[in-house]
Design brief:
This protein is mainly α and 178 residues long. It has a single domain, classed as Fumarate Reductase Cytochrome B subunit, CATH 1.20.950. The chain contains five helices and two strands; from the N terminus they run H-H-H-H-E-E-H. The protein has a two-stranded antiparallel ribbon. Helix 2 packs antiparallel against helix 3 and helix 3 packs across helix 4. Bound molecules: protoporphyrin IX containing FE (2 copies). The site of one protoporphyrin IX containing FE (HEM) has 26 residues, from helix 2, helix 3, helix 4 and helix 5.
Length: 178
């Protein structure tokens, strides 16, 4: 079957949602590895890795809030397929939204609690809602780190499903978001 034919039949997400999907994906593909690298880089560049990771991560929070607003107000095409697949897809999408908000919030609060207010790309200091709170700091860091691996598993499921639809089913699902 010609993919180009299929494209015409596929109900797509709104242009704003499609743009936001790829913007967040690009930001996450930079932010996630940078977070992991913090633990491995030499001390003289560690602070730079913290700064860039935290600044991109904080940006994701605001882009995600805009995206949630668009998602809740714009019409989105219903997911196709058997009930079990629709339920699986909605659950993974819902969890992706949840973790993409939870991760920057816990990261941001953790750095605050450790006593390091965020200096966004070195431009200005973001107001710290917590201040230094050593008791909370380790719990927030632990949630941030565990969530990172849950998020990675969700990416694997999500991208695996997208590839399966595109390469095996050849049903045009990918065009809903392109
Ligand atoms: C969606 C956004 C974010 C993602 C995907 C993300 C991802 C990660 C990952 C993968 C790690 C390494 C975890 C590990 O070593 O097991 C990490 C660590 C870290 N992240 Fe993030 N992060 C995000 C946002 C933020 C933000 C906004 C901040 C702070 C303003 C932040 C601060 C940190 C810090 C300080 C660490 C070092 C370990 C720790 O103390 O928890 N992150 N992050
Ligand atoms: C190569 C990478 C990716 C591909 C091929 C891809 C593909 C897709 C496709 C085809 C859809 C539409 C599903 C449908 O409505 O039936 C979708 C939706 C979605 N994707 Fe991705 N995606 C990718 C990366 C990501 C990443 C990195 C994230 C998270 C940061 C993400 C989060 C989402 C979410 C939350 C939705 C649901 C949209 C909504 O219903 O509002 N995607 N993606």
């Amino acid at each position: 079957m010609e993919i180009a034919e299929v494209r015409g039949d596929v109900a797509r997400h709104s242009p704003a949602l499609r743009l936001l999907h790829w913007l967040v994906a690009a930001l996450v593909f930079v932010t996630w590895p940078l977070g992991l690298m913090i633990g491995f880089v030499k001390d003289d560049v560690k602070l730079d890795f913290y700064l860039v990771h935290e600044s991109f991560g904080f940006l994701i929070l605001w882009v995600m809030l805009v995206r949630l607003g668009v998602r809740l107000t714009a019409d989105s095409p219903a997911i196709q397929g058997p009930a079990i697949e629709r339920a699986a897809a909605s659950s993974v999408h819902g969890l992706l939204y949840l973790f993409l908000v939870l991760m920057p919030v816990t990261g941001f609060l953790a750095t605050n609690a450790h006593g390091f207010p965020l200096k966004w790309f070195g431009l200005f200091t973001v107001w710290s809602p917590l201040g230094k709170a050593p008791d909370l700091a380790w719990a927030l860091s632990a949630i941030h780190e565990w969530s990172a691996w849950i998020l990675l598993a969700l990416f694997a499921l999500h991208i695996g499903a997208a590839l399966f639809h595109h390469l095996v089913r050849r049903d045009g699902t990918l065009y809903r978001i392109l």
